[in-house]
């Protein structure tokens, strides 16, 4: 099945994209053609978009706070016989009822340059500067330190956590090279061990070697060596009492969510 999906937002459209992605994940065998229209803030801009929608009819999702712009879009979609859905309306209506006040109708207000925004930027800078074992003398400043063998998703998970506002360092666990002593004396950050099955790790590493046009059969992907690596890392995690997350069948988002839950649990216990 083929679906044209039109996403209209008066801001960056990030929220709308995430909603659409989550909803579409519930359906199989759907070829989705996305038409993304961010920063829609004028009638003239909307008119051009409606022309495109008419040429590629499908479902229209929108987050538009300007009442006149919304009404124009809804009227045009009705004329075309198309559904136009504002997925945030039910949430804002419920909040208005509970809080006893109307929404401010300010586009992009969640992207305001407030303290949380700058904290997130700082977290991203810190995380990039402390990738792959760099800067152990500054690990105490981190919120989270990820440890794991090579190709256990440490860097992408750290970057994702940084985008959520967590300063995250990561350190590779290598059998032949002991980690810096600082790793075992950290007080502020939560140290989390990432592990995976040896078979999955070999598959990921082999694909990595092939993408680099390197020999696909080395100790890096040897079954016995990789199994030993994984066991070595697991023993280190256990000896130090660090929580462990198996990333074998987890997405980056799922791994990060589990780590954030650990951080929150730790904070509630303190």
Fold and architecture overview:
This protein has 270 residues and is of the alpha/beta class. Helix content is 46%, strand content 15%. It is built from nine helices and eight strands. It has helices spanning 14-24, 43-55, 67-80, 89-99, 115-129, 154-163, 198-211, 223-240, 252-269, and strands spanning 2-9, 31-37, 59-63, 84-85, 144-148, 168-172, 190-195, 244-246. Strand 3, helix 3 (67-80) and strand 4 form a beta-alpha-beta unit. Helix 5 packs antiparallel against helix 6 (154-163) and helix 6 packs across helix 9.
Poorly predicted regions are: none
- Globally, the shape reads elongated
Number of helices: 9
- The whole-angstrom Rg is 24 Å
How much of the polypeptide forms β-strand, as a percent range? Answer: 15-25%
Helicity range of the residues?
Answer: 40-55%
Number of strands: 8
The largest pleated sheet is described as: 4 strands, parallel
Report, as a whole number of angstroms, the end-to-end distance. Answer: 52 Å
User: Secondary-structure element order, as H and E?
Assistant: EHEHEHEHHEHEEHHEH
């Amino acid at each position: 099945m083929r679906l044209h999906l039109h996403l209209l937002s008066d801001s960056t459209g990030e929220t709308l994209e995430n909603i659409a992605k989550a909803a579409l994940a519930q359906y199989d065998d759907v070829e989705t053609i996305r038409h993304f229209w961010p920063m829609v803030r004028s009638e003239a801009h909307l008119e051009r978009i409606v022309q495109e929608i008419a040429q590629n009819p499908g479902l229209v999702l929108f987050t538009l706070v300007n009442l006149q712009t919304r009404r124009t879009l809804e009227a045009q979609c009705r004329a075309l016989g198309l559904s136009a859905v504002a997925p945030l309306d039910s949430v804002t209506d419920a909040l208005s009822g509970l809080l006893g006040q109307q929404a401010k109708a300010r586009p992009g207000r969640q992207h305001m340059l407030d303290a949380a925004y700058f904290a997130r930027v700082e977290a991203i800078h810190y995380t990039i500067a402390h990738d792959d074992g760099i800067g152990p003398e500054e690990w105490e400043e981190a919120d989270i330190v990820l440890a794991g063998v090579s190709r256990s998703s440490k860097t992408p998970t750290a970057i994702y956590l940084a985008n959520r506002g967590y300063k995250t360092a990561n350190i590779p666990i290598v059998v032949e090279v002991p980690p810096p002593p600082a790793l075992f004396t950290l007080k502020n950050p939560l140290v989390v061990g990432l592990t995976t099955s040896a078979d999955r790790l070999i598959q990921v590493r082999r694909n990595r070697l092939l993408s680099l046009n390197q020999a696909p059969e080395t100790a890096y992907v040897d079954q016995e060596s990789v199994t030993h690596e994984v066991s070595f890392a697991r023993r280190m995690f256990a000896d130090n009492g660090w929580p462990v997350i198996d990333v074998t069948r987890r997405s980056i988002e799922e791994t990060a969510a589990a780590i954030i839950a650990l951080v929150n649990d730790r904070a509630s216990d303190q």
